[in-house]
Every structure is written in C-alpha cells, then in structure tokens.
Amino acid sequence: MEFDFGRYKSEVSKDIAQQLQKMACQPILFIGSGLTIRYLDGPSWDELLRHLATECTEVEKEYAYYKQSHSSPLDIGQTFSELYKEWAWSSGRDQFPEELFEEDYPPDIYLKYKVAEYFEDLTPDSISGIEPEEHRSELESLQKIRPHSIVTTNYDPLIELLFPDYEPIVGQSILRSSHASFGELFKIHGCSSEPGSIVITRDDYDEFVEKKKYLSAKLLTYFAEHPLLFIGYSATDPNIRAILSDIDEILSAGGDLVPNIYLMQWDPNAESGDSPPKEKLIPVGDNRSVRVKSITTSSFEWVFDAFGTEGAIDKVNPKLLRALMARTYKLVRHDIPKKTIEVDYELLEKAIQEEAGLAKIYGITTLNDPSAINAHFPYSLTQVAEELGYDHWHPANELIKQVEEETGVNIKESDNRYHAAIKVGKVSKTHKYSTAAVDLLQKVDNEEDYELQLNP
C-alpha cells in the first residue's frame, strides 16, 4: 500500500491535539543545533571547530590532525582553548577586547569570545533577514506555539529573536531560578551574549555534568506535566541522552512509551519515502533506553501549527504572566508566612471557591453579555471541526488556511460574520465561530463553489 503523507500528517496532528487537551497546558520546547543549521545556515559542532582552527595562527596543524588525536570534540575544544590563549597573548592580541587580558578572566575566554562573536555575526537583526520565505513561514508558526518555557543547548541568539518576551536564563543561573516560572528560555550550554558561559571544552562539560543532577531535578516537572517537543536534535544526539539519562526510570517504567515527548526529525524525502516510524528508542546509557514519539517531515510548519493552540494563551504577554507568577510564588513562600503584608483571608477563601472570583483577583473580567456572543458565535474551532465530522481542530484550521490561499482573506484576522475574537482580559482573546463559518468550511471541504461575505 502506497504511503499517504497527508494521512500521516493528520494522524500526528490529531495525536498532538489529544496530548495538548489531555495535559491542558502549554508545551515545552527543547531546541538543538539543527534549528541554527536550518535557519541560519549555522555549523555543526565539527564544522564550528573546523572554522575555529582556521582563525588562530597557533593552530598550526590541519584539523584532521586534531580529529585523529582526540576522540571527542570536547577534547579538541580543550586543546584549542590553550592555543587560543597563546595566540591572544602574542600575535592575536588585537583580535580581542583589552579587558579580556585582566587577570580575573579564565584562560579559555579567548576561544569562547571567538565562538560568541561567530554566532552573533551569524544571527540577523530580524526574521525578515532569514531566507528562503518558506523558512520565515515556519518560524512564524513556531512563534505561535507560545510555549511554557524553552530549553536549548544552542549558543546563538536566534531564539531570543523569535521569542523576545521570554527571559533568558543562561548557564548555571538556571540553578537559582524559580521552579514556578513561565516564559523563560534556559540556555543550559551558555550563550553568545555571555562568552564565559559557553560550554565547549572538556573542563566545561565535566563541570556541567557534575551539576546536571540539579538541572535534571528542575526539568523533571517539565517532563511529567507538559507536552515536550525536541527540535533540531537527532535520536543519537548526546545532548538528548544527557537530558534523559537521569530521569528515564521515572519517565518510562518498564520501557513503556512516553506519550508526551515528541522528537521531530527532518527528512527531505519524507513525503515520498516509506511510512516513517512513529516511535524512537533513544539509548541513554547502561543498557537503558527511552521510547518517545517520532515525527518525520521535510517541512516543520505543519508540526508547529499542530502544537499551536486556539486558546487565550495566544496573546498573553509572557513577561507579564512570568512576573505575576513570580510575585504570587514570593507571596506564598515569603510574604504571608513572615506576615510582611496584610492578607484578606476571607476574600481569598471566597475567590478560590469559584474560578471567576479567582480570575478577578488577577485582573481578568468576564464578558458583559456572553449570551449574545454565544448566540451568534457558538463554536470553538474544535467544535467547528466536530460539526464537519472531524474529532480535532487541525483539519478545520487547514480549511481556513485554504480559504485564505484561495481568496486572500484570513477570516480569523478580523471580526466578521464567520468569526469573533473575544477579549477575556486586557490582551487575551478567545476565538469563536458562527454557523455561517461551519457552512463555509463545509463547502470548502466538499470542494463546492462558495462566496466569501464578511459582513452580515
């Protein structure tokens, strides 16, 4: 039987939608070097070291010599850090800021400075500088996911460009961050904005491994409570193995499939090849493995769309929500026990008995006339899909995209006879649809002629 990639996409999207609905929270994104390679034409680890070998005159031998001499890129990085120090303190001094020659800086700062400089130069000022257009479209879909948090081993600032409202937590700073956070970007191997934080030598990695148990403890709540999407990693990536190795027994007792972890892998022939496996077995050491869900595709856009939501979280400002959660956490852990503020316990007790009351404490109000809105726009996108005979929202969303492609009009971008974006706070919105929208999309689905009329 010939492989139907369209059916494969539909099945994967349905599974993702079910996990999002079941766990009722935003996904966590784990982003690796594949993202930089795809969108910035960035280097692999080996290519980065090969580039560094050409920059420093103290690296006198060909790169192949160091590959033969060392079994790990970390060990090559260790050797290069020593050669870069010698270069910086001799003929290469004019290649570095003068402050790096103060005695407080570690000897590997010169290598890391050049690594940071390389990735800063690689990253454009905006998404508009990324080519081709297909890649920009993918990144726009990625932005719409609004993840709970992001974890990355990348050095470059591409993710900060995509998610400017997310707070970067660099290197060991993650150990001091609140466990009740939202909207944070954990750069666990350092960042080009802080060259000294970059993990690229054997000494760096040994220090990282020594403290990894604390990182794993923080990440455990993510694995247990959120859908997870690994982007830009392969199943053999040592970073994935390191992340999973300390918590695999809790994740998959008895070797069972972990249903909320997805590994997305790029294959240029995904649509024309054989049916890809839906699971991946990732070895994590000592004859142990973790089974996760696998997604194989040549285009990332539909996967990012599947992880996006139609809920009110879409327009929430992560900075605001993060500050709100952090303040609530401090209030409960510190201020109330120490009696540094006055608390109206009667108000709190009354508020927690009903969701609307608690929402008002956070400054969220309800609609003045919800019955009128519900009468005209009674359907969520999931309910629209159900009216069309589907059991998840993604096919209905694809039909809306088809209408946009055919007419140039996205019915979700304005209030009209098909759709209304209802404010549920100062910035948050929820999307509702009318019976006319159901009728329109039914015609599109049946390949019938239709006329778009935005006004009642």
How would you sum up this structure, described in words?
There is one protein chain. The chain contains 19 helices and ten strands. It has an eight-stranded mixed β-sheet with strand order 3-4-2-1-5-6-8-7. It is of the alpha/beta class. The radius of gyration is 25 Å and the shape is elongated. Strand 7 and strand 8 form a beta hairpin.
Topology:
Layout: H1 5-23, E1 28-31, H2 33-40, H3 45-55, H4 63-69, H5 73-88, H6 109-122, H7 133-143, E2 149-152, H8 158-162, E3 167-170, E4 184-187, H9 202-225, E5 228-231, H10 238-245, H11 248-251, E6 257-266, E7 279-285, E8 288-297, H12 301-307, H13 318-335, H14 345-352, H15 355-361, H16 370-376, H17 381-387, H18 394-407, E9 419-423, E10 429-433, H19 435-445
Parallel strand pairs: 1-2, 1-5, 2-4, 3-4, 5-6, 6-8
Antiparallel strand pairs: 7-8, 9-10
Unreliable stretches covering 5 or more consecutive residues:
310-315, 363-368
> Mind summarizing the main beta sheet?
8 strands, mixed
- N- and C-termini, Cα separation: 47 Å
Strand order of the largest sheet: 3-4-2-1-5-6-8-7
Summarize the helix and strand pattern as letters. HEHHHHHHEHEEHEHHEEEHHHHHHHEEH
Which range does the strand content fall in? Answer: 5-15%
